[in-house]
């Protein structure tokens, strides 16, 4: 299985560096590649920053890392998206899976996307405080990141953060989304595999969850399936199996399974991981995994273009003045939103051509 082919490389934590050190892109890349955890955290912080000089530094580092990957024929990490409704036990399951893998010698990174505080913009939940045992493991890295209002269950910097984790030598990267809903399907646009985690009795929530996230799920895990929940877990498993039978599978090589699991029963946690590893093996053999990663890179290219254009637009004083003017017209219903948007774009294009 997948665990058997991974090579463990336990690198001691770096403790001798100053916390607020300043690095060039080259230095940052070199330290991340050498598995410096402080540099990795610094790099992700720079990705999440709104300062232009921070972005320039970390993008230089990412570019250098990509060059090193090509030279060394570096193998990408197995990227697993974990989504599910609040209370389904996503964090607990990830911690159990992470400990299971780390104890087998696999380096695991967790990017836990938290809802943002409307006051500070920072993470509200702080999954690192909930995955305490995994956080202490020498082969694990847990990083909570605030969404800062970005829809889709992941942050705008999640894709690059995964690349940094891979460069630091982590072989499996879990991405835990904020919650569940139609917008959470964005996680399928960056992960090799998407696991939907639900709780016993959650079959009644199928209508509330909608079929969006179920359609992109490569497996469904009925979590907390122990004790008094055992019987309800059976019913929930049957409900989701019935729902999946009505959907067209995304792959001709893989039919999404529904598994019962309890984070406190190692055998069921192991079974979940074995299913994930089996998915990777099959999708790699058929070439579907490589094709999916190509599509993901193209999707994130378009996302970044939109984001950069919006940033440039909002930083132009003439454009912002026109936006304020047309906003008033839209509010007064003397102009449609489409017409107003076109005027803002025209102002932007005019500003660009004048340069």
UniProtKB/TrEMBL annotation:
Pfam family, one: MeaB
GO cellular component, one term: cytoplasm
Signal sequence, start to end: none
GO terms of molecular function: GTP binding; GTPase activity
Domain of life per record: Eukaryota
Alphabetized SUPFAM superfamilies for the sequence: P-loop containing nucleoside triphosphate hydrolases (SSF52540)
Family: Belongs to the SIMIBI class G3E GTPase family. ArgK/MeaB subfamily.
Name of this protein: Mitochondrial arginine/ornithine transport system ATPase (ArgK)
Organism: Andalucia godoyi
């Amino acid at each position: 299985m997948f665990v058997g082919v991974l090579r463990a490389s336990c690198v001691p934590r770096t403790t001798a560096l100053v916390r607020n050190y300043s690095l060039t892109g080259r230095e940052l890349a070199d330290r991340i590649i050498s598995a410096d955890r402080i540099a990795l955290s610094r790099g992700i912080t720079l990705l999440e920053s709104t300062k232009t000089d921070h972005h320039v530094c970390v993008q230089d580092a990412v570019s250098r890392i990509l060059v090193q990957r090509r030279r060394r024929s570096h193998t990408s990490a197995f990227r697993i998206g974990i989504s599910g409704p609040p209370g389904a036990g996503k964090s607990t399951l990830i911690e159990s899976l992470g400990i299971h893998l780390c104890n087998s010698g696999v380096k695991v990174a967790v990017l836990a996307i938290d809802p943002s505080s409307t006051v500070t913009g920072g993470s509200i939940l702080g999954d690192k405080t909930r995955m305490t045992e995994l956080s202490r493991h020498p082969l694990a890295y847990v990083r909570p990141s605030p969404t800062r209002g970005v829809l889709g269950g992941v942050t705008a910097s999640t894709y690059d953060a995964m690349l940094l984790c891979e460069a630091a030598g982590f072989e499996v990267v879990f991405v835990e989304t904020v919650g569940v809903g139609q917008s959470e399907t964005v996680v399928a646009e960056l992960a090799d595999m998407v696991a939907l985690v639900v709780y016993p009795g959650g079959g009644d929530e199928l209508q509330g969850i909608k079929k969006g996230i179920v359609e992109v799920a490569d497996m469904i895990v009925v979590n907390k399936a122990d004790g008094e929940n055992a019987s309800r877990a059976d019913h929930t498993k049957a409900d989701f199996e019935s729902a999946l039978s009505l959907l067209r599978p995304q792959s001709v090589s893989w039919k999404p399974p529904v598994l019962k699991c309890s984070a406190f029963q190692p055998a069921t946690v192991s079974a979940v991981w074995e299913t994930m590893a089996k998915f990777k093996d099959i999708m790699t053999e058929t070439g579907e995994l490589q094709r999916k990663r190509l599509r993901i890179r193209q999707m994130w290219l378009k996302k970044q273009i939109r984001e950069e254009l919006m940033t440039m637009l909002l930083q132009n004083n003439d454009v912002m003045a026109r936006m304020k003017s047309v906003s008033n017209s839209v509010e007064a219903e003397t102009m449609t939103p489409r017409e107003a948007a076109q005027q803002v774009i025209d102002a932007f294009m005019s500003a660009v051509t004048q340069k």
